[in-house]
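Because showing beats explaining, we think one record worth quoting, sequence and C-alpha cells together, and here it is:
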Amino acid sequence: MSYSLTINGKPVQTGKTFDVINPATGEVAAECPLGSAAEVDAAVAAARAAFPGWAATPDDERVTALNKIADLIEANAEDLAALITQEQGKPQSGPGANFEVGGAVGWTRVTAGLSLAPEVLIDNDEERVEIHREPVGVVASITPWNWPLMIAIWHIMPAIRIGCTVVLKPSPFTPLATLKLVELINEAGILPPGVLNVVTGDAEVGDRISSHPDIDKITFTGSIPTGRRIMERAGPTLKKLTLELGGNDAGIILPGTDMSALIEPLFWGTFINAGQTCSCLKRLYVHEDDVNAVAEALAKFVGGIPVGNGVDETTLIGPLSNKMQFEKVSAMVEDAKAKGARVLAGGEATSGPGYFYPLTVLADCTAEMDVVRKEQFGPVVPIISYKTLDEAVEAANSLEVGLGASAWGNDTAAAAEVAKRLQAGTRWVNRHAVLNPMVPMGGVKQSGFGVEFSEEGLREYTTVQVLSIAK
C-alpha cells in the first residue's frame, strides 16, 4: 500500500520518505512520505482559502458531512484497524485497534450532534445583546502515537463541525491510518478541497506549524516539553491553544476495600493499550494493612492476560509502540528495582523481536523512584503504601501534573469525597481512564489547558463575538 500527504484535496508525494516500524516485529511496515515546511505552507494556504466557504456552509450541511465521515470510517473499519495494529501494535481483540476505530465512529457521530446556539445576554426595551460563537479559522492538529486515529478524530471533528479548516500532523511513529482516513474523506468528496489536509514530518514541520502566521489555533496532545515549545513558538502570533500534556495519574484505594469486584476495572484503567494512555492510572496508593493483598491480587490477574502480536486474536495487550518508549520503560523499572522495589509480576525486558514489555506489578515503591515521580507510559504499575488518607492525598497531589485521578472503595460516597480532594481534570470513582464524548476532558497544572469533547470542547474552536443592538 502506498501513502501520500493530502493537500487541497489532492494526494501529494515528497522527495523524501521515512520508515514506519511495526512494533510487534521491529520490521519496516511501510515507507511514508516525509513532509517539509514547504508542504506545511501549501496545506495552510489551502486551508486558509477554503475557510470562508466552509465557515459559511449551512450548519445542517456540516452535520451531514460528519455523519458521512462516520459512515466512511465504518465502511473501512477493518482496513483502518489493521493499519493501527501494524503501526502502533494494538491488538485486533479486546480494547485494541477495532475498539479505537469504533471510538472514532462514535466520537464523530456525537460531535455531529453538538451545536452552539447564540446566547442572549440582555433583551429589554433598550437593547438586545447576544454572544455568537464563530469558527476561529485555520486549526492545526498535532497528534501522538498512542491512539493515532482516535485522537485525530478528537481534534479535527469539532473543528470541522464548527466551520474551521484543518491541517493535521500525525506522529511519525504512527501516520498510516491517519493518512488513509484523510485520503478516503477527500476521495469521497465529503469535504471541499482544503478543508482537511494532512502533512507528515519531523521537528521542522512541527516548528513551522507552531509559528505559522496563518494558523489561528493549535490543538496538541503530547508531552509537557513539546507543549512548552509550541507555546513559545506560537506566542508571537497569539494563537489559540488547546494542550493536553499527559499526566502521571494517581489512584487511591481506601482502607479495608474489598477489591474482588474492582480488580478487573483497576487492571484496564491501568494497562489498556499497554499503559500507553495519558489518562491511565500510573501510581497506586494502598493502605499499609491492605497493600500485600491488593498487590498479590493484581499480580495474579495480570498473569492471566495474554500479551503478544496484535494480529493474534488471543492477544489482549500488544507491544510498546516504539523503541524509544521500550527503552524508557525498561530503564524506569530497573531504577525502581535498584531502589528496593519488589517485582510481583513481569519486571524484565524482553530481548525481542519487537518492543514487548511484560505486564509489571511493583510493590514497596517510594516517591523517589522514577517510575513513581515520572510518567512511565507503559505496562507497569508501582504500588505505594500509605498510613493515612491525608498522606495518600498529599502524595497523589504532589506532582506537577493533574490529568486524571481516582479513588476506589466499597462505600462510593466516601470514595467520592476522597476523589474530590484530588487535583485533576477528571476524578473517577471505582474506575479510571473512562472517557465519553459528552463529558469534557482536560488537565490542570502542567497537564495543559483547554478541554476536549462535549459542547465545552466545541467552544475551544471558536471566538466569542458579541452582537449589541440598540432598539
Observations:
- The first helix runs from residue 37 to 55.
- The two ends are 63 Å apart (CA to CA).
- The mean pLDDT is 97.
- The first strand starts at residue 5 and ends at 7.
